[in-house]
Design brief:
The structure holds two protein chains of two kinds.
Chain A (H helix, E strand, L loop, with lengths): L2 E5 L2 E5 L5 H7 L23 E4 L2 E4 L10 E3 L3 H17 L14 H8 L16 E2 L5 E4 L8 H9 L5 E4 L6 E4 L26 E3 L12 H4 L2 H13 L1
Parallel strand pairs in A: 1-5
Antiparallel strand pairs in A: 1-2, 3-4, 3-5, 6-7, 7-10, 8-9
Chain B lengths: L4 E7 L5 H7 L4 H6 L2 E3 L13 E7 L2 E3 H13 E7 H6 L11 H9 L19 E6 L9 E3 L6 H12 L15
Parallel strand pairs in B: 1-2, 1-3, 3-5, 5-7
Antiparallel strand pairs in B: 4-6
The chains are: A alpha+beta, B alpha/beta.
Chain lengths: 238, 179
């Protein structure tokens, strides 16, 4: 007898050891997320995947699926919270989409479009962040880092290199690079590494590729992030 | 005439790209003109804003004059709209925010390539620059936002026709862009 949970009234099966996110993706249900990627250990930091489990808020990417859970994924309250979280991510960094190569392919932007976010609501931090263009093939613009930890995880889990880490707390939090100079050019990062391609925003970019696809014809110009995400991640689950 | 909605527009720290985009509604402008008339706007050259139904603000706030104009609009407009990326988040002008103002002025007027008779402009008629460029919602209450750099003509059309029809403006997915 298979075990089940219920998401927005729909009963879906789960396997022992799966998180709510795993079960949802396997059942082709989209729960908004930024820091989660099924190929890596869950991190639970962006909180966009917050769902109500038996009346209590939980991160779907880290919370285990358990028999009989009644889960709300889409409600006005949750969508409102998700919009506010996304707006906080926008004001915490410096996200000037018209000046960013990743525009149209950026998951942060994709989430904002999906949530029908038109403004940033909060006062902007205008944080003073650096750019590291020292590497011949890869550029880091810290202005756009949302500290999702995906590059850290990719470098550790897939590339077995440990190039990245997050250092400091609060406003001083920063993505740091494992090299003597602290510069990307002196690290072990290579253009073929998973960590060089995993960034959901425009913080880690491959040089000389940014405008290969014209603005207006890019991923989230054409499709909503729920379609794209499920097409990619549901397949990964199979 | 009197039942037409009054619309005022201005560009603060913007490039007038959003105003150009308003003109991109093309021949629909004729239909629009049956429902609205412009008050203060670069289109009319009227210098001060009277009581209006809609105020469209392009650009962020980079100097003291921008603050005065923005407050004049807020005081006079029933509905105030932030139009485009710069009004919404400061946009490209706000990319100077992490550079000290003195360094910006030195680069532009003293040390820049090809500068002759180097001096920082100080005519009392010139509005003073603020240390940071701000989105307009940090200074006044904003009722609606039209994202885009610029928002397309269709965004203007969708927004204005909704207001004219007395409906709550909303944008379909295809019209929401930050670039």
């Amino acid at each position: 007898m298979s075990q089940t949970i219920t998401i927005d009234g729909q009963e879906i099966p789960y396997e022992e050891g799966q998180t709510i996110m795993d079960a949802a993706i396997a059942a082709n249900i989209y729960i908004p997320h930024l820091c989660h990627n099924p190929e890596y250990e869950p991190h639970g930091s962006c909180k966009l995947c917050t769902v109500k489990v038996n009346g209590r808020n939980c991160s779907a990417c880290t919370f285990p699926a358990m028999q009989g859970q009644d889960i709300i994924n889409h409600s006005d309250d949750l969508e409102h919270d998700r919009k506010r979280i996304t707006q906080m991510l926008f004001v915490e960094g410096n996200h000037f989409c018209p000046a960013c190569e990743k525009t149209g392919n950026c998951q942060l932007q994709g989430i904002a479009y999906y949530l029908d976010m038109h403004d940033n609501h909060f006062p902007h931090f205008f944080a003073n962040r650096e750019m590291d263009a020292s590497h011949p093939d890869i550029l880091i613009d810290h202005n756009r880092c949302i500290f999702c930890n995906l590059c850290v995880r990719a470098s550790q889990e897939k590339d077995h290199k440990n190039v990245f880490a997050i250092s400091g707390r609060g406003i001083n939090k920063c993505l740091i690079i494992n090299s003597k100079s602290g510069k990307l050019k002196d690290s072990e990062l290579d253009i073929n590494d998973c960590a060089a391609h995993i960034c959901p925003t425009g913080a880690i970019l491959i040089k000389r590729t940014g405008y290969q696809v014209p603005i207006g014809q890019r991923t989230y110009d054409q499709h909503k992030i729920d379609e794209i995400s499920l097409a990619k991640e549901h397949k990964h689950h199979d | 005439m009197t039942d037409k909605l009054k619309v005022a527009t201005t560009s603060l720290a913007g490039c007038f790209g959003c105003h150009m985009s308003l003109l991109d509604i093309d021949e629909r402008m004729l239909e629009l003109a049956q429902h609205i008339e412009f008050d203060r706007s670069p289109i009319t050259d009227i210098e001060h804003c009277g009581p209006c139904d809609i105020g469209l603000i392009e650009g962020g706030v980079c100097n003291s004059e921008n603050v005065h104009v923005l407050r004049e609009f807020r005081k006079n407009c029933k509905v105030l709209v932030a139009v485009g990326a710069c009004a919404i988040n400061g946009g490209l002008p706000a990319m100077r925010n992490h550079i000290p103002l003195e360094d910006c002025l030195n680069e532009a007027y003293i040390d820049g390539l090809g500068v002759e008779n180097a001096q920082i402009p100080s005519d009392p008629e010139l509005p003073l620059l603020l240390d940071n460029v701000h989105p307009i919602h940090e200074i006044v209450k904003v009722d609606y936002y039209m994202p885009g750099c610029p928002p397309s003509g269709d965004v203007f059309w969708s927004f204005l026709t909704a207001i004219i029809a007395g409906q709550e403006p909303s944008l379909p997915y295809e019209l929401v862009h930050f670039d």
